[in-house]
Amino acid sequence: MSTRKLRVTIWNEYVHEREIPAIREIYPEGIHGCLRRFLSQDESISVTCVTLDMPHQGITRELLNNTDVLIWWSHARQDDITDETVQLVKDAVHSGMGLIALHSAHYSRIMQALLGTTMTLHWRHGDREKLWCVCPAHPIAQGIPACVDIPEEEMYGEVFDIPRPDDVIFIGWFAGGEVFRSGVTFTRGMGKIFYFQPGHEEAPVYEQPEIQKIITNAVHWAAPACRQDAPPQNIAD
Amino acid sequence: MSTRKLRVTIWNEYVHEREIPAIREIYPEGIHGCLRRFLSQDESISVTCVTLDMPHQGITRELLNNTDVLIWWSHARQDDITDETVQLVKDAVHSGMGLIALHSAHYSRIMQALLGTTMTLHWRHGDREKLWCVCPAHPIAQGIPACVDIPEEEMYGEVFDIPRPDDVIFIGWFAGGEVFRSGVTFTRGMGKIFYFQPGHEEAPVYEQPEIQKIITNAVHWAAPACRQDAPPQNIAD
Amino acid sequence: MSTRKLRVTIWNEYVHEREIPAIREIYPEGIHGCLRRFLSQDESISVTCVTLDMPHQGITRELLNNTDVLIWWSHARQDDITDETVQLVKDAVHSGMGLIALHSAHYSRIMQALLGTTMTLHWRHGDREKLWCVCPAHPIAQGIPACVDIPEEEMYGEVFDIPRPDDVIFIGWFAGGEVFRSGVTFTRGMGKIFYFQPGHEEAPVYEQPEIQKIITNAVHWAAPACRQDAPPQNIAD
Amino acid sequence: MSTRKLRVTIWNEYVHEREIPAIREIYPEGIHGCLRRFLSQDESISVTCVTLDMPHQGITRELLNNTDVLIWWSHARQDDITDETVQLVKDAVHSGMGLIALHSAHYSRIMQALLGTTMTLHWRHGDREKLWCVCPAHPIAQGIPACVDIPEEEMYGEVFDIPRPDDVIFIGWFAGGEVFRSGVTFTRGMGKIFYFQPGHEEAPVYEQPEIQKIITNAVHWAAPACRQDAPPQNIAD
Fold first, then answer.
1. Which of A16, A92, D96, D231 fits A64 for a cystine, CB–CB 3.0-4.6 Å?
2. In chain B, how many H helices and how many E strands?
3. Alpha carbon distance D37, A17 (integer Å)
4. Which domain holds residue A20?
5. Residue of B nearest to D42 (CA)
6. Strand partners, C183
7. Is B76 domain-assigned?
8. Average pLDDT of chain B?
9. Is C160 within the bounds of a domain?
10. Does the pLDDT value for residue D227 go beyond 90?
11. Its pTM surpasses 0.90
C-alpha cells in the first residue's frame, strides 16, 4: 500500500569468494553482489550490503532498525560471530524484521539461537538437486514451476534437526538418494524467517532465474507489515 | 496400562489379489492376510479382517464401535464405497477410532471426507523408493532406521494435495526424480489418522520388516486413550 | 501489484433480517448490506452480494470463477444447502478462491466438508466478549488492538471441534467463563480459509470498526495470488 | 513396554518457600516436595529432587543422562542460571529428555534458549482461572474435565510470545478479562517440551487433583521412547 521501498540488507561472510579463485570466478562481486544485482531489478526493493570484515561485523542496531528484511549467507566463519551480533539480529527479528537464511547459514549461531535446535544435517559434496514445491498456495511459491533443476549442488540430507516448520514449501531431491526440507518458514516474535537450502558457493546457483524468483518472493513475504522498535516485552497491570 | 488388547480391524478391498495372478502370488492370503499375520505377532493386538464384498461392504456401526484402529487398503473400487460406509467411518474417527490409510487409500472417499482436499498427486508405475525418516522423535518412528530401501514401488510424487499435516514423519525419494510426503499424521475430532504411502500391490512391500514395524508402531500410536460412543456434539447451556 | 480489484462475493442466508423485526432494525440492508458497505470503502475491493433465495441458491460456477474471496454467513437454514452448492464452493476453494466463514457459518455444510470435523461447540445466548489477538505478526491482525471489546455477543465456547488450525489469531474471552478460538486459519488445496466467530445477528457487531478492519484484512490475506480454473488433479507420467 | 521406571528429576529454585512464611505454609516441603509426593503415587515413576542452592546449581551431565523427564520451576532467580546449566539442559532435551516447564519457568533462560522467542506476556497478581481443554484427543488431556477451576491464580495473559506450538492443549480464562495459552507443547531435537502455566506460589495450585493429573500425564507423554547420549550431530558422507 505504501510507496516506501522495502529495505533489504544482505549480510555476506565474503570469505570463500576472496580466498578461492574458482569461487571468485563464479561470484566476482561476491555472493552478496549477485543477490544485490537481481534484487535491485525489483523496483520496490532497495538493497544495502555488509560483510563480516566491516566494523562491528557489519551489524549495528541502527542498521537493523532500518532493515525490513535481512538476508544472511555464512559458512567458514560461523563461530566468529559474536554474542553481541547474535543478540542484535535476534532482537531485530523479534521486533519484526524478516530474516532469510541461505544455504550453510542454517548452522549460523543466529539460526541456532532463534530456532533452539542443533540445526544439524547430513551432507556431501558434489551432487545435483531437483527442488520440488509442496506448498503451491504459499506466497513464496508464486510463479515457481513444480520442479526446479539445480545441476550442481552440495547434498544436504535429512535428518535436518529443526523445529516443526510453519510451512514446508520446498523439498529437495538429490541424485545420491537423499531428500531435504529445502525451503521452510518459521515465526519468532513479530519476525518471519525463511530458510532456503540452495546456494553452495562452488556453483552459480544464485544465477538461476527460478532461485532468484524464490528469494525475491521471500523478501516480499518476510517484510513486516509494521516494523517495531523493540522486541515484545512483559506487561504488568 | 490396561491389559485389554488393541482391537484392530483391517479393511481390504481385496480385488487385485483375486483377479490378477501375479498379485495373488505376492499376497496369497490377500493384503489383509499379510497385515494380519505380522500384526498378530504383537501380543497386545487382536485383529479382525473385513473386505469390500461382505454385507454392508464389511463395515457396520457395531464393528466400528468395537474397533480401536481401522486399517484401510483400497484402490480399484474406491468409487463404490457408499455414502453410508463413509459416514460410519467418519463418525467412528470423530469418536476416537484411529485410522491408518495405506498406499492408494489416500484417494478413498473416506480420506477425502476427513481431510477436505482433493488428495491428488503425481504417479508413475515402476520405480524404487528410499524412505527417509524426518521426525525421529515421533512414536511411529521408534526403531526405524534413518532410511528404508523399497526395491520396487510405484512412484507417488508431489504435489500431494493434503492439508498441512500434524507431523511429516517420512519423506520418500524415488529413483525417477520425485519426492513425496510418505508418512503424515492428522487429527480429526478425537481420532488420529496416519497416512502411509508404501504398499503398491505389485511388490511384496508389506513383507519388509521395517514397513511392518512402522505399521505396528502406528497402530499403537493411533489407538485412542478413550474410545467414545459418539462424535463430539454441540452443547447448549 | 496488479491494479485489478479484488472480487469479493458476499453470500448471506438473509433469513433472520427479514423475519425478525429486531434484527431487521440492526441490519436494515441485511448483514450482507453492512459487510458490503464497509468493504466498499476499500478502493481495491469490488463487492457482489448473493442470498439463499436466489436461483441456484445464489451460487454458480461462473460466479465463483470470478470470485477471489467468498464471505459466507449462514445459520437457520444450513441444512438446505444442496450437495451441488457445497461441491461448487469446495471446488472453488481448492482452485484458490479464499473463503471467510463468519459466526454460525462454522456449522455450514461447506465448512464441514472442507475441514472434515463436526465443527461442534458449546454455546449460550446473551454474553459479552473480549477478543484477544494472540498472533500479532499475522496479516489479519495488522492495525488491530491487543483486545477488542464486543459488548453483546452470543457465547461460543470450547471444545470447538476443528482440525489443528494453521494459525490461531484471535481467542475470545466470554464474561460467563468460557474461551474460544475465535479467529483461525486453514488451507485447503490452493485456497485460504479464515473462520471468524464474532457476528451474532442480535447485536450490531459488524458495525464495530475493529471488526470491520479484521474482515477487510482477511479479504486481502485470503485473496489468491493466482486464481486457477480447476482444483488440483492427479498427474500420471 | 519396559518395566524400568520413568526417571523424573524435579528442579526447584526453592527460594520463595524458604524466604516467605506464607508460601512456606502452603508448600512446607517446597514446591518440589509437593510435586514429588503426588508423582510418587504413580508406581511407574521414580523421582529425584534438586534445587538451585546445590553444587552446580543441582544440574550435572550425569544427572541429566539419567533423567527421562525434567520438571523445572523457577521465578525469582532466573538470571542466576549459568550458561553452563542452560547448555547442559539444552543438550539433554536435544538428546531426548522430556522437559516440563511450570508457571514462571516460561521466562527461564532455558525456555528462551530452546524456543528462541522472548517468552514475554501480560501479568497481574490476584485473579482466578478457569482452565479449558481445547485438545481432548491429546494424551496430556486424558481424564481431565472440560474445565478446571483454579480459585486463586496469578493472571498470565496474551500476547504470550512463543513460537507456534505443536499443540495448544489448554486455554486459561481469567476473571479479570484475559485469556492465555496455558498448556502448550513443543519438540526440540529428540525432546518433547510441555509448558504449563498454573502454579503461582501464593496458592496451593499443585494440590489440586486435576492439576496433578495433568502433570502426571505430561510426564508419561514427554518421556522419550529412546534416550540418546548426545544431541543430533552433523553427518558427512
1. A92
2. 7, 10
3. 62
4. 6-117+183-222
5. B1
6. C170, C196
7. yes
8. 97
9. no
10. no
11. yes
Tens digits of per-residue pLDDT, D87-127? 999 999 999 999 999 999 999 999 999 999 999 999 999 99
Tell me how close the Cα of B51 comes to any Cα of chain D, in angstroms: 29
Instruction: Flag if C130 and D177 touch (Cβ within 8 Å).
Output: yes
Q: Is residue D166 part of a domain?
A: no
Amino acid at D188: R
Rounded-to-integer distance, Cα D49 and Cα D186, Å = 24
Q: What is the C-alpha separation between A170 and A159, in angstroms, rounded?
A: 15
Nearest chain A CA: its distance from C91 CA (Å) = 15
Residues of chain C with pLDDT under 70: 1-3
Q: Which residues pair with B168 in a beta bridge?
A: B184
Q: How many domains does chain C have?
A: 1
**Hey, which chains touch B, using 3+ CB pairs under 8 Å?**
A, C, D
Among partner residues C130, C134, C158, which is closest to D132 by beta-carbon distance?
C158
Distance from CA of D145 to the nearest CA of B (A): 13
User: How far apart, in whole angstroms, are the C-alpha atoms of residue B136 and residue D192?
Assistant: 12
Q: What is the CATH number of the domain that holds B30?
A: 3.40.50.880
Contacts for A134 with CB less than 8 Å, ≥ 6 apart: A168, A169, A170, A171, B158, B159, B160, B179, B181
Measure CB to CB from residue C231 to each of B118, B163, B235 and give the nearest one: B118
Q: For residue D42, is it within any domain?
A: yes
Neighboring chain C residues of B117 at a CB cutoff of 8 Å: 94, 188-189, 232
Residues A120-129: pLDDT tens digits? 999 999 999 9
| Grid coordinates of D108 | 527461564
Q: C95: nearest CA in chain A?
A: A137
φ and ψ of B72, to 5 deg = -130, 120
Q: Where are the beta strands (DSSP E) in D1-115?
A: 6-12, 45-51, 69-73, 98-102
**ipTM associated with this complex:** 0.96
| CA B180/CA C80 separation, integer angstroms | 39
